[in-house]
Amino acid sequence: MDLLWSLLSITCLFLQLEGCTRVIKPNTVVVDVDMTLNTPSPCRNVKLQCGEHGPSVYWQRKKQKIGKGSELTIHVDEFLDAGNFTCHNDNGDILNHTLVLIQVTKNDRGEHPKQILQEISDQIYIKCETKNYSGVFECSWNLNMNPNSVQILVEAHRSNSSISCTVHDQDKSRAVCHELTYCPFQEELEKVGFNLHAIDGPRFENYSSEFFLADIVKPEKVQIHKKDEGDKKVVVSWEYPQSWDHPHSYFPLTFEVKALKNKHNCDHEVRSDPRTPNHKVPHKGSYHFFTEETSLQLNHSTKKYVFCVRAKDMYCNSPWSEWSAMYV
Prior knowledge:
The structure is a single chain. This protein is mainly beta. It has helices at about 1-15, 215; strands at about 20-25, 30-35, 45-50, 60, 65-70, 70-75, 85-90, 95-105, 110, 125-130, 135-140, 150-155, 165, 175-180, 190-200, 205-210, 225-230, 235-240, 255-260, 285-290, 295-300, 305-315, 325. Strands 1, 2, 4, 5, 7, 8 and 9 form a seven-stranded mixed beta sheet that branches.
C-alpha cells in the first residue's frame, strides 16, 4: 500500500508541474532550475505530497522536522534546497519519500551546462560502437569525478523493439545493450535512441545519442598471416574477424592495406603515385591500397616492412577497425 501511495503521490506532483519537473524512476523527481541571477522560474516552488492524511503527519529532511500535514511546499533555488524528503506518522514511521534532484537549465556558463561527464568533442559526451550486426552494442563515456559518488542510469529505445542495457558496475563508464528483436538482414528505418542519466549528489544531468547500428559498426582487428613462397617472395594474407557476420558475401568488408618501411607505423601517410591509381604498385618502396581481396604477394628483399591492415563495412560510412600489424 505504501508503494502504491508513493507512486500516486509522485504522479500528482508530475502532473502539477509538468514541463519543469519529471519522474526518472519511482520516488525520484528532477526539477529544472535556471540559476542565472535574478531569473524567476515557475519551478522554484515544488509541492510534495505524502499520500497519507491527518494532522499527525510530519516531514523531515536530514533528520530535521521541516513541516506538518500531508503536503509540503519547498522552495528550490540551489542545490542545498534539494535532497531526500520523507513524511512520517506520529510513531516516526516513514510513510513516503521523494528524492528531489536539480537539473541546471542555464547558468553563467550558458545553456544546459554539463560537468559530470567529460566532453569527447563539440557537445558529444557518449561514444557507441558495435563489432557486428548481432544487435549488441556498447556505449562508453568518461566521468569527471570518482565513480563511487555517481549514479548512472541508462536506457535505449527504438519503436517496436526491445532493448536491454546493463551498466558496468565498477567504473560506471560503459554500458552494453542488446536489441533483442534486431534483424541484420533488414534495413534500419529508425535510429536507436540512447539516454543516460547521471546523478552526483543533488545534481542531475541528462545525455543522449541517436544512431543507426550500421553507422557505428566497427569490426574487430583482422588477423595477418605470412607464408614464404621461396624465390624471394612472400605472401601476406589476412582474415575477416571471427566476430564478423556471415555470410561474408552479404556482409562484405573493404580493407586498407599498407606495407611501410619499418621505421614507420601504420598511421604513416603514404603518398600515392598518380600513375598507379589503385596504389598496388609500390611508390618509393611502400604500398598503400584499398581492396576486397585478402592476400598480397611481396618481393622479399633485404628491406624490412611493417605490413598493416584494417577493415570497415564496405557499404556504410562507419568506423575503420584498429590497425593490425606484422613485420615482414
